[in-house]
# Entry
Amino acid sequence: MLRLSKLTDYAVVVMVRLGRGEAVQTSPCIAAATGVPEPTVAKVLKILSAAGLVASHRGARGGYRLVRPLDAVPIADIIAAIDGPIALTACVDGGTSCEAQGLCPMRGRWDPVNRAIEAALAGITLADMADPGPTFAAPGEAAALGPRALPLSALHVAE
Amino acid sequence: MLRLSKLTDYAVVVMVRLGRGEAVQTSPCIAAATGVPEPTVAKVLKILSAAGLVASHRGARGGYRLVRPLDAVPIADIIAAIDGPIALTACVDGGTSCEAQGLCPMRGRWDPVNRAIEAALAGITLADMADPGPTFAAPGEAAALGPRALPLSALHVAE
DNA sequence: GATAAGGGGACCGCAACGGTCCTGTTTCGT
DNA sequence: ACGAAACAGGACCGTTGCGGTCCCCTTATC
# Structure
């Protein structure tokens, strides 16, 4: 299914959340606002921090803030931070495999595919995924929309 | 890593092999020619046959043949046949999940990403991944190329 | 009728992922 | 100076899906 890790999904939610409200937000606060379990939020933020996508501030009154605005963060960066480099097969990156056989029939063949995907992902920013805009849906309105097609901001009413 | 299943990799190898030589080839023959284990080749071919990408002929002197030429088979078809529909997250296809929470913050947000990837994969055909052309590398030449950048035809010298 | 080949499953081991928790270390507030 | 708040980093399992193999049945040719 071209599996994308669930953590990446959470990372987008967390990043978009960071793009709103206070400039510096704590992970418990983000967890409460998004509905994502707090340990998971913390884990995601640690990874994003290590990747340089968010900046952290330690100690009391600490928290995280965005380094770049949402429209300057391509989705490819998030995927690369959580799931590692964008490569469809294990044969194309470090190249540690395929040594046993000595001859991997697909050597380098997936490169154009990987480049095409990378280009596609580089053209979409987090702002594109959060574009419902500044209007927040009220709880009643969100429920009226049914289980499908809920805007990203649906969970933000909890804030 | 945007994991793509290994079976898909094998499927491309098998399909490209089917694009060469005899029109109808048996799975043991393909296994011997590509170096892929025979049970795995058979499994891949069954899936490809069910997806309509190859046609099968049962009985003695049976085998498989391509339905469409390689340059008419986008890589997206192979991925869809092996890995299922191209969708980065479980939330975008059938939509059976996220019912427990009732509110999935990413509802529909991944759609543009999925469409971009699908478009990218639809533009690359199997012929693009097999383009070393009619010239087959001799074993010595293939070895001289080093562990990297081996052409797809490298294993076909075994035929 | 014997044989060769595909059809359709079932089966099991393994590795990766999701999710949680624990123990530091740092900084702000009192 | 002390304590609390919050990040840093890693360890820890359960689960899930995948890779790989094997079996029996059906079909078609010789």
